[in-house]
Design goal:
This protein is 41% helix and 14% strand. It has 284 residues and is an alpha/beta fold. It is globular, with a radius of gyration of 20 Å.
């Protein structure tokens, strides 16, 4: 009888573990790492449609073409919401119609750079994580840690905080030195550490512009997922990533370089070219 009860108990534990595993979503970094491993690519394809003189139907067809051609080389897609908002309500519908067409195994980062507080930020979180169901968002952290709070407790999601952006204006605030010798971007890095310390269910990473990155900067930031813009049209050099020993997955974003540059090449050819360059720089 004891052995029988033990078998029942063991079966119950096994059933519970399988059921719980089904209920627990994959962590954002697990999904991202799986995609990077499957493609040997850390290319993030930015989707920045410029709605100048194009009908929405043609814009929709173009975006589908870009996604279809670049999917084999994309570790993630990053729609920038500003370009869709500029088209009005129909532009937002264009975005929400596009999102389900992106294969589910490819993370989608919605580039929104929101940085509000309280109820406003809570409804931003509901819009992006519950309604649009994207995997991650970009946030502007310069109103303080409480802007993260509404985004921190959704399992399977990710946040990228602006730390050192790719524009020249990063020198105005982000790269300024504090009285204790640290840089402002290190305060953003401290938010990543705090979220981990407090057991946040969402995972927190950082935006680091390739044009303003170097070995010292990487050493001054925690080992967290990185979203790295600045390659391609902005002139960032992949050489600054050579020898990087970070363990969390990094993504290098290319938007204009794929969408608008070198029109004699297909989107697939441009994505493959950037994916190969990134693979060599990161030794994937």
């Amino acid at each position: 009888m004891g052995a029988s009860i033990g078998n029942v108990e063991n079966s119950g534990v096994l059933l519970c573990s399988r059921f719980c595993a089904m209920l627990s979503p994959m962590k954002y970094t697990e999904k991202l790492a799986a995609r990077i491993s499957a493609t040997h690519s850390a290319l993030c394809v930015g989707l920045d449609p410029r709605p100048e003189g194009e009908s929405l139907s043609r814009m929709a067809a173009w975006l589908r073409q870009v996604v279809q051609e670049t999917t084999p080389y994309a570790a993630a897609f990053k729609p920038n919401i500003a370009y869709f908002e500029a088209m009005g309500p129909d532009g937002l519908k264009l975005l929400t119609d596009l999102l389900p067409e992106i294969p589910r195994d490819i993370p989608v980062i919605l580039d929104v750079k929101r940085g509000d507080i309280g109820e406003t930020q809570k409804y931003y979180a509901k819009a992006y994580f519950e309604q649009m169901q994207v995997d991650a968002v970009t946030l502007n952290p310069f109103m303080g840690y409480d802007i993260l709070a509404p985004f921190l407790n959704t399992p399977g999601k990710g946040l990228y905080l602006l730390a050192v952006t790719s524009n020249g204006g990063a020198a105005d605030i982000e790269r300024q030195r504090l009285a204790d010798g640290r840089k402002v971007y290190q305060l953003v890095g401290d938010m990543v550490k705090r979220a981990r310390r407090e057991g946040a269910m969402s995972e927190v990473g950082l935006v680091v512009g390739l044009t303003n990155a170097d070995d010292r900067l990487f050493a001054e930031l925690p080992d967290a997922p990185l979203l790295i813009p600045g390659l391609g049209a902005q002139g960032g050099e992949l050489s600054v990533l050579n020898g990087t020993t970070r363990t969390e997955p990094s993504l290098i974003n290319v938007s204009r370089g794929i969408l608008y540059k070198n029109p004699e090449l297909s989107y697939a050819q441009k994505a493959e070219m950037y994916a190969r360059q990134i693979r060599q720089a990161l030794s994937l």
